[in-house]
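With this grant's support, we have settled on a layout for protein records. A representative record follows, to show the layout.
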Amino acid sequence: MFTGTAEELRARQAQARELAEHALLDQIDALGAGGGQLHTPGGIIRNRPPGQGWTVADH
């Protein structure tokens, strides 16, 4: 059970979301389905050079 402050909880939740997003995007990329980028209604998510994660751009 988490016993920290509300601010600490929000920070941990944000970090968990980011880790989950990166893991999901890396798995999709490993399938070769995205070609290093994913098109979404809000923009394009692109894979950066190896080891540098992902970036989001507006259309």
Summary: Strands lie at 37-40, 43-47, 54-57. The helical segments are 6-31.
